[in-house]
Design goal:
It comes from Aureimonas ureilytica. The chain is mainly alpha-helical. The protein has one domain. Helix content is 53%, strand content 6%.
Length: 154
């Protein structure tokens, strides 16, 4: 019984409509900020891959094909799985990722969330974003599949 007590306030917050006020717009803006940061992080990674290609006689240059996901996946995984349960863009817009079961979001969940977003977005040509218009908690497909929700922190 004492194991569920710390998660009661979070569960009650997840039931409050104000937890989802403006989440769609804030989430889109956070996405733009986060992927701008990822693009900036790709600049030094570009040079590292270039040097790696020279050292490996050109083999390392094949990493250019997956450079963006190679940078984005750890960025999203470790920031969502961190203590804030939010990427820097999400923190900027006062958002955090919560699990519906009350547990903390870990690095694996952050990675799964990111991978499912990109896979579902690719397979549905980006129409997964429209799903947030019809779900009561403004969840996207990866949120529904993983049992997570994005809420306002305050």
């Amino acid at each position: 019984m004492s194991n569920t007590a710390p998660f009661q306030p979070a569960a009650s917050w997840l039931d409050q409509p104000r937890a989802y006020s403006g989440v769609r717009t804030r989430r889109m803006m956070a996405f733009l900020v986060d992927y701008s940061i990822v693009l900036l992080l790709c600049v030094p990674a570009f040079f590292v891959v270039g040097l790696l290609g020279i050292v490996t006689f050109g083999l390392g240059w094949m990493l250019y094909a997956i450079l963006f996901p190679l940078v984005a996946l750890p960025y999203v995984s470790f920031t969502l799985g961190g203590s804030a349960q939010a990427t820097p863009g999400m923190r900027l817009f006062d958002l955090r990722l919560e699990r519906l079961d009350g547990e903390r979001v870990d690095v694996g969940m952050g990675a799964a969330h990111s991978i499912l977003f990109w896979v579902a977005g690719t397979l549905t040509s980006g129409f997964i974003v429209l799903l947030a218009l019809f779900t009561p908690r403004k969840q996207l497909l990866q949120d529904l599949l993983l049992g997570t929700v994005v809420v306002r922190r305050s």
